Prior knowledge:
212 residues; alpha/beta; 10 helices; 16% strand; binds 3-phosphoglyceric acid
Amino acid sequence: MDDIRDILSANRVVPVVVLDRVQDTAPLCEALLQGGIHAIEVTLRTEAAMAAIGEAAKRFPDMIVGAGTLLNANQITQVMDLGARFGVSPGSTPALLEAVSTKGLPFLPGGSSVSEFMALAEARFPVQKFFPAGAAGGPAFLKSLASPLADISFCPTGGINAENAEDYLALPNVIAVGGSWFVSADRIRNGAWPNITNDAKNIVTQFGDANS
Ligand code: 3PG
């Protein structure tokens, strides 16, 4: 089983994608892999999402495929059966935490307050998603947690972009960032694969990636 810390420290910028059409999955994965990005979060926000996770996991063994926007425990077995290697949620519930622990899915639970972060750490989830990062306080908020919550590592998502990614990634308590800015719904709909590859290459050059 993978470890969420290992996945994120090797893949410091994780594209968060909303896929409306299953047929966009393969060209998107190809574009990202060509650009040197080897992990992706496919959000469960569309009807196509489950099939897209299966397609990406089956056809692209070099891509670590995660399932995002996990909201209930029933989805855990389903995404694992499809080949998802990690899960992400905007928040957490006791049922979700229990399901991922029992089934062994590397998991990034979300939170946006100090008490939520502490509760997740107490439940043995020291690597957490900070969401929605921009609206909940941005890099300044996370910076102020580095000393009191020194054992917690964050993956901020929500409002990350080419301009502010570096501000987050420079913090000692930020292991990775996630976002849709270079894999927007528009770009995917329009098949802007070369743009996605170019941005991925720039991101990997700037922030590194274990596979670069
Ligand atoms: C997420 O679920 O992490 C966010 O929706 C991604 O946010 P972004 O679209 O602002 O990057």
